[in-house]
Automatic annotation (TrEMBL):
Catalytic activity field: L-threonine + hydrogencarbonate + ATP = L-threonylcarbamoyladenylate + diphosphate + H2O
Taxonomic lineage: Bacteria, Bacillati, Chloroflexota, Anaerolineae, Anaerolineales
E.C. number: 2.7.7.87
Pfam families per UniProt: Sua5_C, Sua5_yciO_yrdC
Biological process (GO), any one: regulation of translational fidelity
Localization in the cell: Cytoplasm
GO molecular function: ATP binding; double-stranded RNA binding; L-threonylcarbamoyladenylate synthase; tRNA binding
InterPro entries for this protein: DHBP_synth_RibB-like_a/b_dom, Sua5-like_dom, Sua5/YwlC_C, Sua5_C, T(6)A37_SUA5, TC-AMP_synthase_SUA5
Name this protein carries in UniProt: Threonylcarbamoyl-AMP synthase
Residues noted as binding ATP in the record, renumbered to the chain: R63, S148, S156, R200, Y239
Length: 360
């Protein structure tokens, strides 16, 4: 499949040029694949109602057929394009969270290829807020299936450069609108369940959903490699660096965190491995004093998890590309976007080291 020329077209992230959108629209309508920025990560777009285009998405990514795709629409008014029936709760959720990083699980329309939904009778749908995504959806008039624009199982792309490193030669076009503002995928909410259930934490927090809906459940069970999944991003191993072995330090107590960190660094050096760390801004003083030569990236402050989420995937990719063998990553809790950050780190990790909160 490699051998295509992938065009990179730079666009203004706030007001994309008409000629770029026309070219991308023509590509999509002819069955081609276009990567484009959303507010979460870059998506790999194809016509959701064209079975061959959908198959090409799976081929380009190396994605298993049991992992469904999210269908992107310009507005809630377009839901009848892909949804059989629209539950009344949708209008409330759309009013509060669309356009935005919320994906809803809804009854699949008969015209949606089963390849989009992994053979299920439900379809994942969202309305993105990014101006480039919105302009492309409105101009094309298509329902666009768009998983993350990277090879399956790896770190999601938050820039066009990331897309090209993974998919150059496999797709026709990338609309380069700069870095994505949220940096982790959308929250996936199943509203076909008796109680709304978060299948994948993401850019809309559980707290925000509960403020609107009341009780919201969180899916605890991880999906097997073989079964059809209700949502993307549920496999136990996902979002992982290509080379670096990620070790998540889920240790809330500062002293215990640094004791384990020191142990891991010493062990890796004994084995001749190169160590790197993804940390919070608040950790830099300690690292500068005790590990001045250690490769490190601060993702953001513990009080600004939006920054941490925005920088997470780029940080993981940077450490991987720097040849880091062991990547130590601190935990950021579960409040707000912390739940989505932890979910991604859980699935990317080769090892998770836990310590209980004192008094727990």
């Amino acid at each position: 499949m490699i051998g295509r020329v992938t065009r990179r077209i730079f666009v203004d992230s706030h007001s994309p040029a008409l000629d770029a959108l026309l070219e991308a629209t023509e590509c999509l309508r002819s069955g081609g694949l276009v990567a484009f920025p959303t507010e979460t990560v870059y998506g790999l777009g194809g016509n959701a109602l064209d079975g061959r285009a959908v198959q090409r998405i799976f081929e380009a990514k190396g994605r298993p057929a049991n992992d469904p795709l999210i269908v992107h629409l310009p507005s809630a008014d377009a839901l009848p394009m892909v949804v059989k029936t629209i539950p009344t709760i949708v209008s409330t959720l759309a009013e509060h969270f669309w356009p935005g990083p919320l994906t809803l699980i809804l009854p699949r329309g008969d015209n949606v290829p089963l390849s989009v939904t992994a053979g299920l009778d439900t379809v994942a749908v969202r309305v993105p807020s990014h101006p480039v995504a919105q302009a492309l959806l409105q101009m094309s008039g298509l329902a666009i299936a768009a998983p993350s624009a990277n090879r399956f199982g790896g770190v999601s792309p938050t820039s066009a450069e990331h897309v090209l490193r993974d998919l150059e030669g496999r797709i026709e076009m990338v609309l380069d609108g700069g870095s994505t503002p949220i940096g982790v995928e959308s929250t996936v909410l199943d509203i076909t369940a008796p109680i709304p259930r978060i299948l994948r934490p993401g850019g809309i927090s559980r707290e925000a959903l509960e403020a609107v809906l009341g009780r919201v459940e969180l899916l605890e069970r991880k999906a097997s490699q073989e079964e059809a999944q209700a949502s993307p991003g549920l496999l136990d191993k996902h979002y992982a660096p290509h080379h670096a072995r990620l070790i998540l330090l889920e240790i809330p107590q500062t002293q215990e965190l640094w004791e384990e960190f020191t142990h891991q660094v010493a062990q890796a050096k004994k084995e001749g491995l190169r160590v790197g760390a993804l940390v919070a801004d608040e950790d830099l003083t300690y690292l500068d004093a005790h590990f001045p030569a250690l490769a490190r990236l601060a993702l953001g402050s513990l009080s600004d998890l939006a920054a941490v989420a925005r920088n997470l995937y780029a940080g993981m990719r940077a450490m991987d590309e720097a040849g880091i063998d062991i990547l130590l990553v601190r935990d950021f809790g579960t409040g707000g976007l912390g739940l989505a950050i932890r979910d991604r780190l859980y699935r990317a990790a080769s090892q998770i080291i836990r310590r209980a909160q004192n008094g727990a």
